[in-house]
């Protein structure tokens, strides 16, 4: 008996609407920043503007000052988590998720680095780094403090420590709260010394967070989002199943889909209004099979050769092109670049209104946001 006959079938369109609903992209939500971050599973944040634009796309009454305040009050933090990339998440989620992803982050190695500290050498260095970073420190301070210890290259030591220790980025009084030169601080010192859950509990919480934000999805999808191997995720999935909190479906290729028992599944004819999404938006990074949101052909335009996931817009719930910001007098204007056409009049007007609203957000802060990535625009090297 196949998975298709064992479990109810969900079409690609149904999966699309489920993802959009859980990511607050069918209708903007009337939520504060912290519960919104937890609902959507956080937002990738190596570009400072991206969490702001991601929340703007999802919340009914969002202002940049709302997220500034959350970072300053330490209820939302920025640190290395899923896929060993920077994410903005609630402080509670950071504490829950770090023990789950820590072995994956620590296992990353640089190529051709003969002077990398081994585990025995790294342990005392990590303890020293935790003590040194009870207040925010710049990377130059770390290099000076740890330079040339036992003949090891200072840059390599700091690179390894940033993956061995739970560091959070301290916000600055700049647009988007973070500049290009991070100041990092030990998470327990920044958040008040809370205890970490053990790894097994953390993995279960990670699985719950993922399925609530992106389900129904395969175990391979969860692995793609988290950066953890499927084998490491299975005990967390089993723990949810043991409580009766897991349900299963299959997709049109017969693959098993996992989901939380109480999570919403909207009708497949639910309207999906156009949305403008930031670089590295979670909806495009959370699945091994991304066809519920973007075709394989369009994906080659949206994701650059080096992996940069460009700013996109959706029509009818799927990616329909790229957008770019350009200075316009004292503000900004949004340029829409479709990868397929045509749009009907209603969608075109909705995109125009969304573009005007986004320009109002970014104009006072960074009118040419993502300018450095425009080399990947079609016709400019992509």
What does this structure look like?
By secondary structure, the protein is of the alpha+beta class. It has helices spanning 3-6, 12-22, 33-40, 50-56, 64-73, 91-107, 119-132, 139-146, 154-164, 187-191, 199-214, 219-226, 230-242, 296-302, 345-362, and strands spanning 43-44, 76-80, 86-90, 137-138, 167-169, 183-186, 246-250, 256-260, 275-277, 312-315, 318-328, 331-338. Helix 6 packs across helix 11, helix 8 (139-146) crosses helix 9 (154-164) and helix 11 (199-214) packs across helix 13 (230-242). The longest helix is centred in the last third of the chain and has 18 residues, at 345-362. The protein is globular. Residues 1-5 have low confidence and may be disordered.
Q: Short summary of the structure?
A:
Helix content is about 40%, strand content about 15%. By secondary structure, the chain is of the alpha+beta class. The chain has two domains: about 1-270, no CATH class; about 295-375, no CATH class.
| SSE series | HHHEHHEEHHEHHEEHHHHEEEHEEEH
If you average the pLDDT, what whole number results? 92
Number of strands: 12
Largest sheet, in brief, is: 6 strands, antiparallel
Helical element count?
Answer: 15
How far the N terminus sits from the C terminus, by CA atoms, comes to 45 Å
Globally, the shape reads globular
Tally of domains: 2
Please give the share of residues in helix.
Answer: 40-55%
Which strand-content bin applies to the residues? 5-15%
Counting helices, strands and paired strands, the structural category is alpha+beta
- Unreliable spans: 1-5
| Neighbour order of strands in the largest sheet | 1-3-2-5-6-4
